[in-house]
Amino acid sequence: MKRKLFSPAAMLVSGLVLGAVSRLMDIYTQNLGNIFSQMAIWILLGTLISIYSPSKGRAMLNVLLFCLGMIFTYYAAAMLTEGVYGRQFIIGWTVFALFSPVFAYFARLAKNEGLFPKIIGGGIVLFSVLSSILLFDRLRVYDFIIDGALVYFLFVKKVERVRD
C-alpha cells in the first residue's frame, strides 16, 4: 500500500489534484486559500513525501513530480478562472519546484542519526518560519501548527525504513 501511495505516478496525480484544489480554495475560502498559498504548507508536504518515500532517489523524483503537478494545475486553473497571478509568482514557484529534488534529498537526510542531520532538520524548520515572515509578513496561528507538525515529523516521529 505504502509503495503505491508513494509512487511517482501517485505523487504526480496528488500534485495535480492539490494544485487545482488550492486554486479553488483561493477563490471560495479565505482561510484555507491563505494557508495553501504560503510556502510553509508545501515545505511540510514535501518533507513528508521525502521522508516516507522508499529511497533518496524516489524521494527526489516524487517531490519534483508533486511540485510540478501542483504548479501546472494551479496556474492552469488560475488562467481558466481568469484569476490574478503574476509572472514572478509563476517563475518563483517553478524555481522552487526545480530545486525541490535537492530539498527532498536534505529532508530525507534529516531523519538520519547524528548531529548533522539534526542541523539539516533545524534548517528546514528555520526556512519554513522565515518564509512565512519574509515572504508573507508574519507568523500566523496556522504557521505555528504547520511548523509544529514539521518539528514533530523531523525530530520526534520515528520512520522505519531500510537505510539508503
Task: Please tell me about this protein's structure.
There is one protein chain. By secondary structure, the protein is mainly alpha-helical. It has one domain (2-156). Helix content is 80%, strand content 0%. It contains eight helices and no strands. The chain has helices spanning 2-5, 8-28, 31-36, 39-52, 56-80, 87-109, 115-136, 141-156. Helix 4 packs parallel to helix 6 (87-109), helix 4 (39-52) packs antiparallel against helix 7 (115-136) and helix 5 (56-80) runs antiparallel to helix 6. The protein starts with a helix and ends in an 8-residue tail after the last helix.
Keywords:
about 160 residues, mainly alpha, 8 helices, globular
Topology:
Layout: H1 2-5, H2 8-28, H3 31-36, H4 39-52, H5 56-80, H6 87-109, H7 115-136, H8 141-156
Helix pairs in contact: 2-5, 4-5, 4-6, 4-7, 4-8, 5-6, 7-8
Domains counted in the coordinates: how many?
1
Poorly predicted segments: none
Tally the beta strands.
0
Span between N and C termini?
20 Å
Strand content: under 5%
Name the helix and strand elements from N-terminus to C-terminus, one letter apiece.
HHHHHHHH
Shape: globular
Number of separate helices: 8
Helix/strand class: mainly alpha
State Rg. 16 Å
Mean pLDDT: 89
Largest sheet, if any? none
Q: Bin the helical content.
A: over 70%
